[in-house]
Amino acid sequence: MSDAAPKPPARADRVSLWRYLKLFRADILSAQPARLYRAWMAEFRTPFFRSYMINDPGLVRLVLNGRPRDFPKSDRVGAGLRPLLGNSVFLTNGETWERQRRIIDPAFEGGRLRDTFPAMWAAGQAAVARMGTGVVEIEPETSHAAADVIFRTLFSIPIGDAVAARVFDAFRRHQRTQPILNLAAFVPGPRWMPRFHGRETTATAREIRGLIGGLVVARATRIAVGDAPDDLATKIMTTRDPVTGQGFSPEEMVDQVAIFFLAGHETSASALAWTLYLLATHPEWQDRVAAEAAGLTGAFAEMSRLKLTRDVFREALRLYPPVPMMVREATRRETFRKRAVPPGAQVVLSPWHLHRHERLWDDPDTFDPGRWSRDAARKSARQAYIPFSAGPRVCTGAGFAMMEGVVLLALLVRKFRFGAIAGDVPVPVAHLTVRARDGIRLRVTPR
């Protein structure tokens, strides 16, 4: 098998606006030209919008770490995701976002990983029990496993619970209808302008939020009578903002659970599926992961020794960052690389391009977990590795996601051998996350 990890075909450098919008609507990754894998900056100017993609590490640090208040999340991203996520922490800015993070962050502090580990381990064992053999469509399996982790850690219920199963089913239908960035993220217009939401997108978002609302109300009742389990939902719902003294209302909690499900389920499912594919095409690394995981007993302390498994997962996140692009908005006039950036311009940060940038990584398209033990990769990572974003808006669950990925990967690979199918090469596309256009099929056999 080739060492090169598959990526979508790039478009021609010059295409008409109509062609670009058509490509963008189908898939934002293949709508971009190949030159972005080596450019420090690119400007997209049309009669409707102006946006700037930045791959210059210094500019990325400026936007995410140096002056994040001057580059808030673009509300046009919210135009695409608000039907599901409402006013969640993923979409808000300013004081609202700061208040939300003050309430949410304590639930994901370092000590809580030890508390949530047993639920992750149980979800991993359930995934092993469900895994079939023969030719298996992998993405549904990883989605099931990641959703199970979320329900067990958030609400102490397995995916087999009736409500959890209904949320999972609705979310599977929703995620194929709505890209993480739709045209509304780039085409300006008033709030009343149609935002390209399909009927299925709106219906499934309403269904998911209704089901989550029922879980939130039920948990509030258990908290009130003092018999709620000590899980993430209870922790968040009982935390008060140290500044205002207020907690989340039920409606606000629905918003936050919706983004936990998106961030903690959809992204983890994407990352795990691509990791299994990469190991299937590199059996020597797969055998090393299986050997490292062989003696695990389910003790939290064992996680620290899974260094190779962690490097494999880290490398998969480099090649297939689940959220491929992020959009910020310039609030004042800027100068980037001697080019004027007007107020209101969209600033696009692309983990997809940064992680495969030809000037920032050695052999950027090659799957090589061994790179993480070399100084060159550590330097590249400091400049150009942002699978969970960076700065104040770094994903609050980054540590949670890394441990989840390592646990699920170790348990699956020590039990099964995953093999690639000749000629069946998945093509990455961006839906809610980076998924395979026609799925990922692997041959699964017991070890």
Largest sheet: 4 strands, mixed
Which CATH class?
Mainly Alpha
Strand content: 5-15%
Radius of gyration: 21 Å
Structural category: alpha+beta
Order of helices and strands: HEEHHHHEHHHHHHHEEEEHHHEEEE
Structural commentary:
The protein is of the alpha+beta class. It has one domain: Cytochrome p450. Helices cover 48% and strands 10% of the residues. It is built from 15 helices and eleven strands. A four-stranded mixed beta sheet has the order 1-2-7-4. Strands 3-11-8 form a three-stranded antiparallel beta sheet. Strands 5-6 form a two-stranded antiparallel ribbon. A hairpin with a 3-residue loop joins strand 9 and strand 10. It is globular, with a radius of gyration of 21 Å. 47% of the residues are buried. Mean pLDDT is 90; it is low at 189-195.
Top keywords for this entry?
single chain; 447 residues; alpha+beta; Cytochrome p450; 4-stranded mixed β-sheet; 11 strands; 10% strand; globular
Task: Provide a quick synopsis of the model.
The protein is an alpha+beta fold. It is built from 15 helices and eleven strands. The two termini are 21 Å apart.
How are the secondary structure elements laid out?
Elements: H1 17-26, E1 41-45, E2 50-54, H2 57-66, H3 75-85, H4 94-104, H5 110-130, E3 134-137, H6 138-155, H7 162-175, H8 199-225, H9 232-238, H10 250-280, H11 283-293, H12 307-319, E4 326-329, E5 334-336, E6 339-341, E7 346-349, H13 351-354, H14 375-384, H15 398-415, E8 416-419, E9 428-430, E10 434-436, E11 441-446
Parallel strand pairs: 2-7
Antiparallel strand pairs: 1-2, 3-11, 4-7, 5-6, 8-11, 9-10
Helix pairs in contact: 5-6, 5-15, 6-10, 7-8, 8-9, 8-10, 10-12, 10-15, 11-15, 12-15
